[in-house]
Write a structure and sequence with these properties.
3 domains; 8-stranded antiparallel sheet; 328 residues; rod-shaped; 6 helices; alpha+beta
């Protein structure tokens, strides 16, 4: 038989409402006549009076609390109740046994479902987030934000473009900020202030993140051999360490570079840059212009040698890049 709103318990002390089983007028009258209430500490921390007749222990009604297996709403019903339990929130019907079994597994012990009040105040149905887990997400998010800051500083102060896109700093800030707000309860780490194990985990993650950031900066740095004077049969290209450039036609005014791209500023329009793919091999500098879609224009590849180096000897030991095909 399925319980419905308005049904009474067998002893008449309880009635099923939308909020769960509640006391009836009979119970209120019994309490007024001198019956002693039995207060039970429930999982929710609320005290639900049950009626115990002074003359008979058989009239004691204990309230049991469990969890709806569908919507996780809290359910209250008399202990020993036979028949189905209908959740007032989602209207799903369960047997008392299934509710108690599932709820007990969540709490780790079936005893915590009983209404005797022993240790129930310390348990919660909600999944709590440990302090160590919160600190872990803060650490990971902080590393991502730090990467964005280093990317911004390296580009604006040292002309090192780590990612190659202007919006990478903004993206790192958004992702890092989002990660710090994630609530992860999977690890159950203790606070870093209290656990040497957590300290070790955080130290390893922090060191790994720092190594990745430094490696990204290192790989994005321009070739240290770029600065200097480069010549070929047609022109001379002077790349000064202060970022200025001098070349035969006077088209460029400044230069900057990362690991594989060199950018020249237009001498008549500082807002415009010419981008070239570059490679240095055995004192030979190969340059090929990039199209608007960043594809390499292989047929426009040119080569220079370091000033003072024999052109023919330098080419004997050089490795020509695959993207350098001036005769194609």
């Amino acid at each position: 038989m399925v319980d419905a709103i308005g049904d009474f318990s067998d002893d008449g002390f309880w009635v099923l409402t939308e909020e769960g089983w509640g006391p009836t007028a009979k119970q209120s009258q019994a309490l007024a006549d001198g019956a002693s209430p039995h207060v039970s500490a429930l999982v929710s921390g609320e005290n639900q009076p049950t009626v115990k007749d002074n003359d008979s222990a058989e009239n004691t009604v204990e309230n049991v609390e469990g969890i709806c297996l569908t919507c996780n709403a809290r359910l209250k019903f008399p202990r020993g109740h036979s028949g189905g339990i209908k959740c007032p929130t989602c209207s799903t019907i369960f047997s008392p046994e299934s509710i108690m079994s599932e709820s007990a597994s969540l709490l780790g012990s079936s005893q915590t479902l009983l209404s005797n009040g022993e240790g129930l105040e310390e348990h919660h149905f909600e999944n709590s987030i440990s302090e160590g887990d919160k600190q872990l997400t803060m650490l990971i998010g902080g590393i991502i934000i730090l990467f964005g800051i280093i990317d911004y500083v390296s580009f604006n102060l040292f002309d090192i473009d780590i990612t190659g896109v202007w919006w990478s700093t903004i993206l790192a800030g958004v992702i890092g900020g989002g990660v710090t707000r994630i609530e992860v309860s999977s690890f159950g780490l203790e606070s870093v202030e209290k656990s040497s194990q957590t300290q070790g985990i955080f130290g390893a993650i922090g060191a790994f993140g720092l190594v990745i950031i430094l490696l990204a900066v290192f790989l994005s740095a321009p070739d240290s051999e770029l600065a200097g004077t480069w010549v070929n049969d047609l022109e001379t290209l002077v790349l000064s360490e202060n970022g200025e450039v001098t070349e035969s036609e006077g088209v460029f005014s400044d230069w900057r570079a990362d690991s594989d791209t060199i950018m020249f500023t237009d001498s008549t329009d500082p807002e415009y840059e010419y981008w070239f793919e570059y490679k240095i091999s055995n004192d030979v500098l190969y340059l090929a212009p990039l199209a608007l879609d960043d594809s390499i224009i292989e047929t426009s590849c040119i080569a220079y040698v370091k000033q003072g180096v024999d052109f023919d000897k330098a080419f004997e030991g050089t490795t020509i890049p695959k993207w350098c095909n001036p005769s194609a």
